[in-house]
Amino acid sequence: GYNPAAVAFVPISGWHGDNMLEASTKMPWFKGWLVERKEGKAEGKCLIEALDAILPPARPTDKPLRLPLQDVYKIGGIGTVPVGRVETGILKPGTIVVFAPANITTEVKSGEMHHEALQEAVPGDNVGFNVKNVSVKELRRGYVAGDSKNNPPKGAADFTALVIVL
């Protein structure tokens, strides 16, 4: 579950713009919102203030690298570029990665996000990274990249999951 005291509830009208960017005079019954969490309190009267009060989640950089592939491209002059979101760990140029379940090992030559070079990619980053001596045909969507020296990912015959549908 969740703690309702830690959630800002804001009545809005997107059609009329009420309580979106500034407090509306059309809802005199609404006195504002207040959230209480271990990091402190926050309060406001409109949606933009509630969005600004959201704290970014902790990024698990201390865990082993896990980067599920969303796609793989062949880019002329660069080579094979797998693309995905870093879920845990850190991806840097020079890292020797293994792709599970195919067990393909290679070196990361470079990485970029939004067409800008990256020195490191952290959890939450959607990145493309260039790998050495691996063809596009060897990799596919769903493979998981991990650091070959730090608890590399492995294929599994089966697993147990807890699925929550909201």
From TrEMBL:
Please verify whether the record's keywords include ATP-binding.
Answer: no
Could you give a GO molecular-function term held by this entry? Answer: GTP binding
Q: Name one GO cellular component term.
A: cytoplasm
The UniProt entry, under Gene3D superfamilies, shows: P-loop containing nucleotide triphosphate hydrolases, Translation factors
Residues annotated as domain Translation elongation factor EFTu-like: 79-144
Q: What are the protein's UniProt keywords? A: Cytoplasm, Elongation factor, GTP-binding, Nucleotide-binding, Protein biosynthesis
* Top-rank lineage group of the source organism: Eukaryota
InterPro entries, alphabetized: EFTu-like_2, P-loop_NTPase, TRAFAC_GTPase_members, Transl_B-barrel_sf
Any coiled-coil ranges, and where? none
Please state where this protein is localized: Cytoplasm
- Protein name (record): Elongation factor-1 alpha
Natural source organism: Ophiusa tirhaca
Give the organism's phylogenetic lineage.
Eukaryota, Metazoa, Ecdysozoa, Arthropoda, Hexapoda
